[in-house]
Model the fold of this input.
Amino acid sequence: TTTMSAAVSHTRSYEGVNRKTAKKCSSYQAPLSTVQSQRDPLTKVTGMLVQFLLHMLKMKKPIVKADMLKVVDKKYKSRFLEILKRASFSMEVVFGVDLKEVDSAKHSYILVNKMDLPNNGTVSCGRGFPKPGLLMNLLGVIFLKGNCATEEEIWKFLNQMRVYAGKKHFIFGEPRKLITQDLVKLKYLEYQQVPNSDPPRYEFLWGPRAHAETSKMRVLEFLAKINHTVPSAFESCYKEALRDEEERAQATGALRADTDATASECCGPCLAAPPTSSEVEADSSLCG
Amino acid sequence: MQGSTRRVGIMTDVHRRFLQLLMTHGVLEEWDVKRLQKHCYKVHDCNATVEKLEDFINNINSVLESLYIEIKKGVTEDDGRPIYALVNLATTSVSKMASDFAENELDLFRKALELIIDSETGFASSTNILNLVDQLKGKKMRKKEAEQVLQKFVQHKWLVEKEGEFTLHCRAILEMEQYIRETHPDAVKVCDLCHGLLIQGQSCETCGIKMHLPCVAKYFQSNSEPRCPHCNDYWPHEIPEVFDPEKEREAGISKSNKKPLRSRQH
Done:
């Protein structure tokens, strides 16, 4: 744990980094090479990995270990896990982004943004993907149908929203491709054949990324809101969602016990901001 | 900062949101940064007093330091507006661009950068840049394509276009100053007053020293007989006005209407 805390908290044993840039126009700062040599050698390579992860945050694609290894200098490859641990700690504490492993066999990870920015953090001109509103609805339908919804059930629901297969929607694009391919590739949904169905029929389930980025309770809250009711109105689903919350709380508690006392000083309230679909960012042009 | 031991700042969701939003924008003017800060407080901690911006940023920078990133403050070269960007300190290449652009596109940027640095005015014409298309590394690029790539640079805030000529966006200057100095040690120009990297500015016609427009504005403010700080000869150029954020807000001048001072006074 001392190595973890070293990444974020340390006493400055030098002075002289010029922070008074207000007085100068784009003042030149001498490279920090003299300071760097006093530091733990892993600090710099952790910084590189963090910058890579920040870039991947924009891309919204799963990250594989192989790509992360490319960013790390050969001589530190043997210490990769330690570097990864430090980097994900920094991502969480400094940026409010969690690095979660979604496939331990394939060593693939995703970044979950706890800051819950509207438009998924993209600024107005970007076409953010996936479209949060539709996805939440789909996850809701799947959940209400017992965590698995047939393709017919999904289309019945989408048609009610005037979203039709083959008909390009002005926001979602072509819906069939969106739900059977794009959202599946991004691991938000799973699309599989109903076992023993002949002719083959298909069904949808939550994908691992949906499990990581949201929860049954949040989806239920969303459904309740749009139906002008409360989560507890969906009796059996509500009970299931409560159980799910408990399990998650226990899992997180186990992780927290690992982290350093110093970490909790820097951490502050690390709770995920609740989903506020009605969240009005003060200036949508600035805040997405 | 006080004393020789420094407390590392505390990060809360206010700071995290601020950081992410600043990152999304690439570069922001000071006024927008203040609005962003207030917004982040509103979302996460509406009862707290909004910390003074300088302290707020220093706080975040103390945490970012170990990651070799910092929120850097600079000033636009044409009209002296204070700007902020999240900058990588450890990189010695155009690496922040590397993830968004292909090899030949990056090379086009490097070529444009060289022309800009070597130019007298800090501007490189579209024609001159496009003529270098055959020299690019990587996949062959046609001029038509290159025109679009240049527009892509403008969209991503690496270049700025004015009347068919290109110069560096203030973001690029903030982000790449160290890289530029290291890769063009002889060609690079430096402001005689602030010693910062200079792309656009005014020069003394006698001794050749150069100064940024905002530096000129501050140095010669209310001076009826401006003289070169180096050779004392009469300073022949129009002295720009010091940027005043209050005046700008009152006049309600929108960015698109405001005419930035042209630095063609070489």
User: Anything to note?
Assistant: Strands of chain A lie at 63-64, 97-103, 108-113, 149-150, 189-193, 202-206. The mean pLDDT of chain A is 71. The two ends of chain A are 37 Å apart (CA to CA). Chain A touches chain B through 56 residues (CB under 8 Å).
